[in-house]
Amino acid sequence: MLDPAFWRGRRVLLTGHTGFKGAWLLLWLQELGAQVWCYSLEAEPAPNLFRQLAAERPTQSHAWHHQVGNLADLAELNALVELCQPEVVLHLAAQPLVRRSYRDPLGTWATNVQGSLHLLEALKPLEHPCAVVMVTTDKVYENREWPHGYRECDRLGGHDPYSASKAAAELAIASWRASFCGTATHQTPHLRIATARAGNVIGGGDWAEDRIVPDAMRALAAGQTIAVRRPKATRPWQHVLEPLGGYLLLAELLAKAGHAHASAFNFGPNPEANRSVQELLEEALRHWPGSWSDQSAPQAPHEAGLLQLEISKARQQLGWQPRWDFATTVVRTVDWYRAVQEGASPMECCLADLEAYTHSMKAMEFSQT
Questions:
Q1: At what angle do helices 212-221 and 326-341 cross, to 10 degrees?
Q2: 145-165, pLDDT tens digit by residue?
Q3: CB proximity list for 126: less than 8 A, separation 6 or greater
Q4: Whole-angstrom Cα distance, residue 15 to residue 271?
Q5: Do 177 and 336 meet the contact criterion of CB atoms below 8 Å apart?
Q6: Which domains does the chain have, with CATH numbers?
Q7: Lesser CB count within 10 Å: N end or C end of the chain?
Q8: ω before 47 within 30° of 0 (cis)?
């Protein structure tokens, strides 16, 4: 369970808040009562979850501050850190799309690696304790198409530019932590830095290109057949709130327990949610009738066929575990899109999912005690 008292009034720097996961995390932080400074590129054109939620809450208020910027601008990051003096940093800003990384490999590497290091450099002058969670991806591992989940100690790698850039970011962050966190004259004693590797997240409000769920929801809303690139590809599907709860818990424990948790953590679903794209679609079509077709292309850019995460470390060291099974994850996702298409408020739909998820957290905590 998260400690609401810890987050109330806590100064938080959140990057990437105009993205899918970032918009959900901003909403959760607001509901927890944190003081949030947000830094990101301009939001993608509508539809965009951040734009949808911001339309219902002012972007500049006593509780949160919205700033458009680029991780390449170190001077601007320095000024932002000096202004907000964060006690917690949640770094989600990234170029997050595999297929886009083939079109812009240099931009992907610059953002995901150099941008992350710029943020850490900007945090170095802080003179008070600060918990830092740097978010990467489950695709940081050298994918050998193993039938078992990857552990945090397994070899990093990456075939496509996106995966490789995130693996490189993991190495760069670990090196930065080893070099500059400590009590030597060239180090800072105040930063506690961890990385978080999440599985494939789905949920309402993802409008990105070349992702199976938003592509499917757009097709269903238009009465069209869903085109599928890799129906047999297997992924660790989880609702977006699952890893976000993990990030918040990791940040909280970093702040409370110091450097004990300053390492890498996987946040993925239970094994039953490791399903193929075809299974994901068939489950979704139970709740929104339609059809799909196999559009596999032999010359398409490489994408992993089998990927799973081992989450024992997060269970044992953080007390974190998934709350929603595969069926619940899919139905909550589909219901969000259907409700919004029928005129429901995106904010109300997100808050309903957040309330249901936090209730499941409390129910699981109660059952374990």
A1: 40
A2: 777 889 999 999 988 999 999
A3: 81, 85, 86, 188, 190, 191
A4: 30
A5: no
A6: 4-206+237-273+305-325 (3.40.50.720)
A7: C
A8: yes
Q: Are 88 and 253 in contact (CB under 8 A)?
A: no
At 37-89, the pLDDT tens digits run 999 999 999 899 999 998 887 655 567 899 999 999 999 999 999 999 999 99
How many CB atoms sit inside 10 A of residue 179's CB? Answer: 11
Give Cβ neighbours of residue 236 (< 8 Å, ≥ 6 apart).
138, 149, 199, 200, 268, 269, 273, 274, 307, 308, 309
Strand-pairing partners, residue 60, are: 65
> CB of 11 within 8 A of CB of 87?
yes
Question: What does the alpha-carbon distance between residue 229 and residue 294 come to, in Å, rounded to a whole number?
Answer: 6
- Please give the Cα distance from 218 to 224 (Å, whole number): 8
Pairing of strands 88-91, 64-68: unpaired
Structure tokens at 256: 């409370």
Q: Is the pLDDT of residue 292 over 90?
A: yes
Looking at this protein, which amino acid is placed at residue 109? W
Torsions phi, psi of 29, nearest 5?
Answer: -60, -40
Measure the CA–CA gap between 203 and 334, rounded to whole angstroms: 8
Report the chain's mean pLDDT, rounded to a whole number.
92
Place of tokens 């398409």: 300
The distance in angstroms from the start CA to the end CA of the chain is 12
Burial of 151: CB neighbours in 10 Å, binned 0-12, 13-18, 19+: middle
